[in-house]
Each structure stands twice: as C-alpha cells, then as structure tokens.
Design goal:
Layout (H helix, E strand, L loop, with lengths): L2 H4 L2 H38 L6 H4 L5 H10 L2 H13 L7 H20 L1
C-alpha cells in the first residue's frame, strides 16, 4: 500500500493544499526579488549626479550594497531549488517564507540606508 492510499481524504487534500501554497510562495520570491533589485538600482541611480560630501555617507557601503543588490536574485533561485526537495514535507512551507523574509529584510535595509 502506498502512502497516498494510506492517507484519508482530508489528509490528502491538506497535503495538496500545503504543497500548492509552498509553490505559490516560492514563485512569489521571483517578483519580490525583481522589486528589490529595481529599488536598489533606482537608489544607486538617484545618487549618480551627487558630488557633495553628504552623498558619500549614503547607502550601506560598497561591500554590503553588493551583497544586498546581487544577493536578491540568488534568493529565488535557491528557494525554488530547495523547494523541489522540501515542498511535500510538513514544514516545507518554511523555505519560501524564509526566502520572502530575506527579501523583505533586504528591501528594508536598502530603504533605510538610502
């Protein structure tokens, strides 16, 4: 007897719903990463014509900006890749939730430092 035959109908539908929610959230990391990337690009472009000393202290610094800016597209790739393994697990939904949380933190840091 396979696992799907052993589960009652309610458990099957709950598992299917949980898996669907996991994949929807995992795929939502893509537009979230695009938004963070575009916001970071806009923040840098807004400082392009700035020559004052006051502008030198804006932003998170070159090293951290590189991590925040170029790390945003990496998060959905890793989230989707790990979701292939964890989507059917009971707590597999935590993977895309953590990915979305990382992107939200990234956005907040960029918004506060520029």
């Amino acid at each position: 007897m396979t696992e799907s035959q052993a589960l009652p109908t309610d458990a099957k539908s709950e598992r299917r719903t949980r898996t669907t929610m996991t994949w929807v959230l995992a795929l939502l990391t893509v537009p979230a990463a695009i938004a963070v990337f575009l916001y970071g690009m806009g923040a840098v472009m807004s400082m392009a014509g700035c020559t004052n000393d006051a502008c030198a202290n804006q932003g998170p610094g070159e090293f951290w900006f590189g991590i925040l800016f170029y790390g945003a597209p990496v998060v959905p790739v890793v989230t989707i890749a790990v979701s292939f393994i964890t989507a059917r697990m009971r707590y597999g939904i935590l993977v895309p939730v953590i990915g979305l949380a990382l992107l939200a933190i990234d956005f907040v840091i960029l918004a506060l430092t520029f």
